[in-house]
Amino acid sequence: MDEHGDRIDVALIDDQQLVRAGFRMVIDSQPDLSVVVEASDGRQALTELAARRVDVVLMDVQMPRMDGIETTRLLLAAENAPKVVVLTTFDNDEYVISAIRAGASGFLLKDVPPEQLLDGIRTVHRGDAVIEARATRRLLQHVGPLLEDSMDRAQLPEELTPREVEVLEAMAYGLSNTEIAARLHISETTVKTHVGRVLSKTQSRDRVQAVVFAFQVGLVRRSDLLGTED
């Protein structure tokens, strides 16, 4: 947790003041969440975030002076960087791919319902999941072709155990820890242990990066995801 105990400090980076105001109202209504930084473009964001550490950054993509992709890349290059959640729409596939490459830890649609916004922030901050599993699944179905076309192939690390490969594959299909536990007939605690080892051995920052890795090694393909919306 951060220096304020259980409170999650959030930064809002978006060039639309009304968008920031709406998100702030929802976030500040929660006792465990607080918006402590706002910025209207990437350069201002980097300046503000150099002076004030936060836990989670909600980052718009298309902004003047410096866009959200470059801002995310520069922000995550620093030590003790916050988690970055990119605000996106499904009609901006290329930005989603660029955000993945820049190291974003999650994605939210700009018109996301308030409860999903709050859950997304808490989920990314916990680090045990990136975003609600079905949203991850839909995202991968949508941008899968671009992932397959734009990523260099990689090899599975030899140190990954067969069980860890199963867990990685399940993560790539958007399964939650609870769903993985049920599928593999193991406890959620054991799943969390396997997930941690998968992230470490694949050198993935979080589950989004692990899913990208699963595409890179050919463990899962976009065609495999078709028809798995629910």
Description of the molecule:
The protein has 230 residues and is of the alpha/beta class. The protein is built from eleven helices and five strands; from the N terminus they run βαβαβαβαβααααααα. The protein has a five-stranded parallel β-sheet with strand order 2-1-3-4-5, sandwiched between helices. The mean pLDDT is 83. Keywords: DNA-binding, Phosphoprotein, Transcription, Transcription regulation. It comes from Rhodococcus tibetensis. Residues 153-218 form the HTH luxR-type domain. Residues 9-125 form the Response regulatory domain.
Put the structure in a nutshell.
By secondary structure, the protein is of the alpha/beta class.
Task: Identify the notable features of this structure and list them briefly.
230 residues, 11 helices, single chain, 5 strands, 12% strand, globular, alpha/beta
Itemize the secondary structure elements and their pairings:
Layout: E1 8-13, H1 17-28, E2 33-39, H2 42-51, E3 56-60, H3 68-76, E4 83-88, H4 93-102, E5 106-109, H5 114-126, H6 133-150, H7 162-172, H8 177-184, H9 188-201, H10 207-216, H11 222-225
Parallel strand pairs: 1-2, 1-3, 3-4, 4-5
Q: Sheet with the most strands?
A: 5 strands, parallel
Q: What letter string, H or E per element, gives the SSE order?
A: EHEHEHEHEHHHHHHH
Shape: globular
Sheet with the most strands: spatial strand order: 2-1-3-4-5
Low-confidence parts: none
Gyration radius, rounded: 17 Å
Number of beta strands = 5
End-to-end span in angstroms? 33 Å
Fraction of helical residues: 40-55%
Mean pLDDT: 83
> What share of residues are in beta strands?
5-15%
**Class per helix and strand makeup:** alpha/beta
- Helical segment tally? 11
